Amino acid sequence: MKPSLFGTAEIINKTYGALLGILLGLFGGHFSASAQSLNVDRAYEHVLIAPIALAEFSSDIAPLAQLHLYAYRIGIWQQIPFQSDERGLEITAEGDTVLNSYFPDVKDGLLDDSDEILFMAQNAGERVAANNWIPDASARSFPRYEITVTDPLTLRQGYVYLYRSTTLPVSPALPTYVRYTPGPATSPAADTVRGISYVQGHTANGIPDYLVVPPAFGGNGVDFLDRLKLRIVVDVPIFGMKTINEHDNLVVVAGGVRTVEGRIRIIRQVRERIQIDLFGTPVPVDTIAISLFFYPYSAQLAGEINLTAALSARLLRASFDFDPNVSNQAWHNQNTGPRIISGASGTLTAAEAQIVFLPQRNWFSMGSIHGSLTGIFSMEPIANTTQKFYFCDTQNGTCDGTLDTGDSRSYGDSGFMITSATAIEARFQLGMSAFYLKPALTRAEAAALNTNAETTVQVAASSQDYDGVAPTRVNDLRVCFTTDTSAVLSVTSPSDAGSFVRNYEVGYSPTPVGNDTAAWFNTIALKALNLPAPAPPGTLQLLPINGLTQGAYYCFILRAIDDFGNASALSNLACGTIVSVAEQEIAAHTPQRFTLAQSHPNPFSAKQSSALIRYELPQAQAVPVTLRVYDLLGHEVRRLTQTKQTRGVYAVRWDGRDEQGALVPAGIYFYELRAGDLRQAQKLVLVR
Q1: Within this chain, do residues 152 and 95 fall inside the same structural domain, yes or no?
Q2: Which of the four, 1, 462, 525, 622, has the lowest number of CB atoms within 10 Å?
Q3: Mind listing the pLDDT tens digit for each residue in 605-646?
Q4: What gap in Å lies between CA 432 and CA 411, rounded to an integer?
Q5: Peptide bond just before 601 cis, omega within 30 deg
């Protein structure tokens, strides 16, 4: 029993929605700017970031209005255009549930994992040090994200930085790259989109039929597009072969046009009713939503078409048909070219029409004096079908046996076509990009666009925190010993909670410090040069200060600076007289014998300095080493060293305190060094 008319309409209704939604968007236009080093610079590509990579901001943490994108160029932070599109759950008018819709029922204004952030690759800048942040206190109170964009073809990289701030305004100089002009109330789908490199207009049912490259982008403002053409030939029970096209079978429903508008892209969705002619009467069979994504230079679309046996599709075609303004202009694809469009050059040979399958992509390009169009699409193989390029250049309609639309002529009509003698059965995956470019785009430039499409940029995001915490204060600065014109200070290297200690700043002067330590340090004290880099936190470190006057009494103060420029509080005051000590006494050398040197200075005052105790170990193997201080009664006062050590010269200081940290009385003390079976002792004097 053959299906009834209602049953036939129901079969078509279940299958054409996804199909036409994909096909109508295939070439629905965007474009690229001047093709300088297209294969390396990525100047015309947008970059999309999934917020799931931005854990510090996503999951309803950061309000979208508080996010700002910056690039750093030639020493200047610049706010750059970007866009945050909210996505979420939508229940359609037909009761269908759409996850991650660009038109969700509710927008909460917060960044979610399903949302999208995008910017243009050409806006990326230089990489900055971790301590280089925009001068905004609120932004520094939140993490930022360093986003790295890498071209895998050249390994060139660009960087942008995503900040969150409650106080930053949006720069009034920030450009908007795409703009939307609604159609009239009587024909809302007859709207216009303007990018950097194009102006595209649409028919009353939303089909692209106007395209110019403006003079500002190198074009001449002449329209060179007839229209986007769509063909679907199906075998309808009872009625036989029927053709659905973009002109006769699509009607925009009331209130069917909606958009998402931003600085980087416009998402345009048109809800259309599909109808076919049966017995001279248009019969509605489905309502579909057709979405086009407009970018400054390009449009992209991807999707899946479920081709079932019930659909019984025998031909699918989507193509851009140009108008007579492209006559005598060049056409290329990956297999052939240049071919001169004349309105009479016919079709492609089988070899010229051959396509490749994923992961490779297919491309064609028309370069005219008015502007250029390059289309890039991908396909998977479908069993029992012929998949190929479609190219038709004729004054007599089409080259696929269907009736023509538009101006009823084909000038370089270009796209793809799938045919089969039986019903096409497959889940058809389609990815498409369309670029509108400068006039007379070359074959090499078009091929480079395709290479970029096959090898997309790589994006990585890493969270960074601003360190507003200074290093810890140094409390144990001491003058260890001096030479004729120098002093050696000892310090336990401080820690820093937020980053790392980058350098020391030591102020010194024979001028008395007085009551205002900060004023002495900032205005009177000289600053030491060529200091060693800070050692890991907790390490005993020696700092030489040169260029001093012998016999003078100097005071020293230190502060530590971290990677973010935070300065610690000023250290304790350390003072001492510059007296001569033989240079060889402090020179490092390879020890040949077991030696415990006399402490220096001796006597010493714990209030002004500490006693430096040097010793040398000659053995190659590590042995247990202890260095202890005793009083005259033999009581252990302080254990300065207890570890294993090998050959080397070592220095330890004693600050005149016992194990509990209390100052010991003035007097005579002994210090003893044990290294394996070896032992030596020396005497020192502590004064007040």
Answers
A1: yes
A2: 1
A3: 877 678 888 888 888 888 999 999 999 888 999 998 888 888
A4: 21
A5: yes
